[in-house]
Amino acid sequence: MDRLSEQQWRDFDENGFVRLGQLLEPESIVEFARRADELASGTLVNPQIQLQLDTGGDYDALPGVVSQLTEGTRLYRKVQGLEHDELFLPLVRHPVFEGICARLYGPHAPVSLFRAMIMNKPAGQGTYLPWHQDGGDVWALDRDPLVTVWVALDPATRANGCLEVIPGSHRLGLLSERGSTLSTEDAERHCPADRVLSLELEAGHGLLLHNWLLHRSGINPSSQPRRAFTACYLDGRTRGVLTGNHFPVIFGRLDPAPHHYVRQLHVDLAALRHAHGTAEHYAHDLEAEVERLRAKLGEAESYARSLEQERAARLLQDSTVPLQASAAPRRGWLARLRGDGAH
Question: Known Pfam families for this protein (predicted)?
Answer without folding.
Answer: PhyH (PF05721)
